[in-house]
């Protein structure tokens, strides 16, 4: 890894995925390629975390039930991996994460050949979840704000758990092998949308990112979120993740999860450039496409209206009919998910790209909403990480916390800088 050799890093990830159920989890290297326009160069990052054993048990139970849930996804088994490699799935409490932006969940390694044939790990980063306040929840009714505040952590746990394990963890890539053979039966497998034989595939040394290019990250994040919303509608998911909740509470969590994803689509407009007609952030592009799908579901399942705020300025109101999640939302997301999944599997860049771009398009009405989102934007959220302190002659460790405000951020930064200075000078 120190020498920058990709094969060394691949081998390190092979060892890492075999380290099952550690009490302390860590990884380091070139991991995510979100910031690279070509989606090939990855950012150097690393983290250290301890395991939340209570939440991890739920996630391990989800892994145990994965095949049952995978069978409910809206594509034929020919478009699913030949074998589901049961990954390690833990909920972590981050001690430190060195990167440009801390995620709430991870599914790695990102090397397709390792994920497809050897396995991967999923992690849920429980103490990274942003804590909302009702005053910062824009574009929602008061009733929805209160419900979102009540269930923000459980609804996000639902999305992250299903997104990471069964979103990023599912799907077969149709490939031509070095032997000249295919990893699928080209005589029997048909394109479900044309009923014709499969004409596109990944050639030797081609990857998902190299074929789909700049749309690949947003496309895959959207696919994973759609899997989460779709599978969240099944009792089997709720039975595993929330056995302690009543039926009414589970429906509230599901509703909050759907509102969260559509609401994120409104806020995502901040990251769209009208001049370049392009999205500046992959996850935001994904959120917006989900909003568009739900708006197309019909019968006012989701509505987005221009309103006037209490300050007399233009505002937005997003509403979602919770009685239509199972009848309208699930079908709309399922149909959309089926298409983007198959296009990815068979490497149909032409049809997949056209389909994706149609939902990524920001029309005149949405552009006008974007200006309202920009005008009402809130200060950017600051990230604060706590610290560990060695006590005495390495006999004990204290968890050092900082107040969640500007002063706390400054104190943490100062403390971290002191640690680095001490290391440079041969100190602790």
Blueprint (SSEs and pairs):
Elements: H1 6-17, E1 24-32, E2 43-52, H2 53-64, H3 66-70, E3 88-98, E4 105-108, H4 112-117, E5 121-125, H5 142-167, H6 208-212, H7 216-231, H8 235-241, H9 247-267, E6 272-273, E7 278-279, H10 282-295, E8 302-308, E9 314-320, H11 325-345, H12 349-360, H13 364-375, E10 387-391, E11 396-400, H14 406-424
Parallel strand pairs: 3-5
Antiparallel strand pairs: 1-2, 2-3, 4-5, 6-7, 8-9, 10-11
Helix pairs in contact: 5-7, 5-9, 7-10, 7-11, 9-10, 11-12
What can you see in these coordinates?
With 428 residues, this protein is of the alpha+beta class. It has 14 helices and eleven strands. The strands form four sheets. Strands 1-2-3-5-4 form a five-stranded mixed β-sheet. Strands 6-7 form a two-stranded antiparallel ribbon. The model has no long low-confidence stretch (mean pLDDT 91).
Biggest beta-sheet profile: 5 strands, mixed
Our estimate of the beta-strand percent is 15-25%
The proportion of residues forming helix, as a percent range, comes to 40-55%
User: Which structural class matches the secondary elements?
Assistant: alpha+beta
Note the overall shape.
globular
- The parts where pLDDT drops under 50 for at least 5 residues are none
Mean pLDDT across the residues is: 91
Number of strands: 11
Order the strands across the largest sheet as they lie in space. 1-2-3-5-4
- DSSP helical segment count: 14
Radius of gyration: 22 Å
**Helices and strands, in N-to-C order?**
HEEHHEEHEHHHHHEEHEEHHHEEH
Q: How far apart are the termini?
A: 25 Å
């Amino acid at each position: 890894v120190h020498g920058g050799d990709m094969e060394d890093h691949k081998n390190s990830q092979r060892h890492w995925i075999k380290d099952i159920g550690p009490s302390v989890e860590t990884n380091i290297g070139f991991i995510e390629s979100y910031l690279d326009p070509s989606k090939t160069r990855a950012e150097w990052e690393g983290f250290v975390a301890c395991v939340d054993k209570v939440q991890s048990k739920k996630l391990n139970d989800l892994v145990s039930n994965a095949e049952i849930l995978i069978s409910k996804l809206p594509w034929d088994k020919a478009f699913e991996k030949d074998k589901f490699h049961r990954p390690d799935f833990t909920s972590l409490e981050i001690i430190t994460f060195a990167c440009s932006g801390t995620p709430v969940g991870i599914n790695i390694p990102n090397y397709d050949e390792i994920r497809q044939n050897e396995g991967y790990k999923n992690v849920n980063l429980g103490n990274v979840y942003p804590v909302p306040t009702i005053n910062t929840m824009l574009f929602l009714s008061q009733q929805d704000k209160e419900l979102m505040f009540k269930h923000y952590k459980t609804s996000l746990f639902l999305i992250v758990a299903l997104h990471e394990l069964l979103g990023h963890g599912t799907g077969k890539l149709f490939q031509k092998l070095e032997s000249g053979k295919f990893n699928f039966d080209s005589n029997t497998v048909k394109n479900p949308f044309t009923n014709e034989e499969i004409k596109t595939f990944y050639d030797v040394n081609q990857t998902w990112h190299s074929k789909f290019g700049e749309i690949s990250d947003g496309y895959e994040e959207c696919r994973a979120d759609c899997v989460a919303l779709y599978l969240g509608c099944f009792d089997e998911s709720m039975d595993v993740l929330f056995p302690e909740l009543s039926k009414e509470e589970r429906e509230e969590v599901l509703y909050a999860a759907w509102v969260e994803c559509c609401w994120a689509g409104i806020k995502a407009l901040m990251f769209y450039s009208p001049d370049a007609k392009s999205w500046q952030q992959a996850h935001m592009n994904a959120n917006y496409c989900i909003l568009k799908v739900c708006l197309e579901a019909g019968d006012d399942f989701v509505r987005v209206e221009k309103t006037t705020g209490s300050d007399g300025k233009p505002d937005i109101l997003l509403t979602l009919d919770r009685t239509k999640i199972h009848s309208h939302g699930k079908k709309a997301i399922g149909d959309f998910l089926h298409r983007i999944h198959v296009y990815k599997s068979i490497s149909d860049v032409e049809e997949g790209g056209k389909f994706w771009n149609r939902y990524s398009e920001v029309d005149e009405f949405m552009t006008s909403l974007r200006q309202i989102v920009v005008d009402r934007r809130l200060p950017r959220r600051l990230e604060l990480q706590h610290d560990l302190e060695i006590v005495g002659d390495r006999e004990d460790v204290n968890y050092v916390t900082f107040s969640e405000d500007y002063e706390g951020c400054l104190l943490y930064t100062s403390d971290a800088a002191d640690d680095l200075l001490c290391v440079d000078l041969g100190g602790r």
